[in-house]
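Hi, here's the filled form for the chain we discussed.

Project: internal
Contact: R.S.
Residues: 171
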Amino acid sequence: TLALLYEEKVKSEKRWQGIIDNAKEGIYAVDLDSGKIVVFNDAFCEMTGYSRNEVSTMTVRDLRFPEDLEELSGKIKEVLDKDKVVWETKLRRKDGSVVFVEIRASVVEKTPHPICLSVISDITERKHAVEELEASEKKYRTFVDSAVDAIFIADARTGNIVDMNTTAEEL
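And the returned structure, exactly as it came back:
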């Protein structure tokens, strides 16, 4: 019966590793005491630019920029307190470039060492799109506010004024 239990455990571990390996999202698990990355998938390697051999020797601190280490410490405490945390941050890729990610982290084991399982999504394109939109809105606002003519923007359905430039406000 001990042999059967061991065999079932091995099958279960292989099944879970297969699920993790085939996921499109980056998945990794961290020993929160040491910060060591103990489980990860190929999508995580692709997202960060590191090989499987390199990741197997890394800690989560290795993926952070020095100015973000304090945030990391805070998030580790938060996930230990709440068991589940979601946040956006940036990681340092092997080539030194930035990859913006959303991390969904959960404590999956508390003893003997707390283990945190994280699923990460690359949100770099979304971040850049938001930055471009904000720059465009700023340019629009500067253009409209510097116009000498009064500019009103009204809701087409209600006729209510929803925005105006500074010249219009002075009328």
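Let me know if anything looks off before we file it.
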